[in-house]
Each structure stands twice: as structure tokens, then as C-alpha cells.
Amino acid sequence: MAFESKKFRSSAESNTFGARYRALMAKRPFLLFGLPFLTVIIGGSFVLTPATAIRYERHDRKVRTMTRDEELGVGQQRRKVDIREEYYRLASKDLDDWEQKRVKRLKGESDGIL
User: What pTM, to 2 d.p., does this model score?
Assistant: First the structure.
């Protein structure tokens, strides 16, 4: 064979970090790629678990059950609604007297006029 498949590497070049890394990659690819990947995935799970718990605890603080005293005081500020009164109030409004107004467009936006 005229051309060799392996390149010539001098002894000075074989002592560098890159050369040792390439040699280890050829022998044990799982140790250099698979093991760090699995470590990050499993470690991330343990790191994110407390963060997720904090999120749900904060949500639980916002949305809490009301005490009996709070339940009694909730409806006191609302106004009483009578369906007939609301009907007459809405019927008394003049819905036929209105004027169409154009909305001012943003700069560069089409105004829709052909």
C-alpha cells in the first residue's frame, strides 16, 4: 500500500493533552461522553427538585383556604343585584344613537382604506 492510514505523530506531539484525550476517546468513549452526560442529567434532577418544591410552596401560599370568618366577610362589600332592575337600566340606554370613530393607527400600519 502506498499511503498509510495512520498519520505520523512525533513523540513531542503525543505528550500533549489533546493527543492523550484522542487516545482515551478511542479506547473508552463512554467514560468521556456518556458518564458526564448521565451525571449532568441525574445531578440536574436532584438540583431542580428543591426549586420545583419552592415554586409549588409559593403557589400554595397565594392560594390558601379561607377561614370561616373570611368566608362570612366576603359577600358584604358586593352590591345587591336585581334582575329586573338591571334589565330596565340596560333598556333605558340609547343604543341607536352612536357614531363610528376611526382608531388612530400605529406608524407604518395599513389604515385599511383601499
Answer: 0.37
